[in-house]
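Sat 14:20. Reprocessing the chain from the morning session after the first attempt stalled halfway. Input below, unchanged.
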Amino acid sequence: MRISSVTIAAIAAISLFPSFGQAAGDAQFALNNGAALPAVPAASVPADASALKGRFCWAGKPDALALGLGMPAAFCIEDVHVVRNGAGFGAEITGQPFKGAFGAAKAEGNAWKTVLFANGESHGTCREEKSAAIEMTFLVDSLGYLTGTPVVSASAEETYDNCHSAPTVNEIVFSRTGIASAAYSWKRGFSAEADALGMPARMAIRGLHFETGVLVIETGTATGRHKVGFTPAANGLKKAEAELFSANTGYPCTEGSSAKISISFLTDASGAVLTEPVLAANTGYTMDVCHSAPKYTEVTFNRE
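Finished this time. C-alpha cells:
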C-alpha cells in the first residue's frame, strides 16, 4: 500500500531519529533539496529484531532505496498512548528504535494512524525525487492506550522527473517476528475423562501480548483475553501462567470432576514474551468436593 505524502504531512512524527535530518521530524515533510543524507548508525537500523524487545516486533526487507533513506529493517513497539497535542493529537510511543511523541490522526471507529518513519530527498523541480515511509494503524481504549494488535505498512517511491513522471512505488512488507508472534499447536491422545468434560483435543494459538494485566491471544482456538498469574523466576524474570480451558462437575459435598488446560512462559517487567509457551493439562476427580482433595491425572499434549 502506498503511503501518500499527504498522509505523511498530516500525521508526520514530531520527533524521530534526529540524526536522520528529515526523518519525519518535519511536520511538513519537506524533502532534502539535493543534500546528502547523513550517515545512519548501524545500531539504528538493525538487520533483524533479535536484539530488540517489545510487545510487538516486525522485521522486513526494505529495498536499497528505503535503506538509503534510513528505514529500519526491524522495530518493536512497546506501548502507545494518544494524547491531546496543541490543536490536534499526538501518539506517545515507547519502542525500539521508535520512541517519543508522534503526530496522530483519527481513523474509523477507535482506530488511529501515525507515521513512524518518513524521509525523502528532492533535487528540485522536474528532477529526481525519492521518499520512504512506515505507517502504523492501531486501536486504543477509552483512555487512549493501545489495545489490540497494531498493523504496519511501508513503501518507498522514486521518480526521475517529479513534474512529468509518476513515481515508481515499491510496497515493503513487514511481518510480525519473535516468539510472541509465532504459531503454536498441540494435540492430545484419547482420554475418556477429558472427553467427558469437553476438553479440546487440539489447541492452537498465535500471537501473545499483555494488555492491562491480562494475556491476549490474538488468534487460534483460545482467542481472547485470559486472566494471568505471575510467580517469581530466576534473574529477575517472572513466570506467567494463564488458563485456556476449564470445566468442572459436581456440587458441594458430592463427587466432582475437573479438567484444565494452561500455558506458561517467562516474561520481564516490560511484558515481553521471552520463552516459548509450555502447555499443561490435567483432569481431576474427588469423591467429596467439600472434604476430599481431588486426585489429578496429567493429560499429555504433544507439539505438532
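The CA atoms of residues 38 and 250 lie 71 Å apart.
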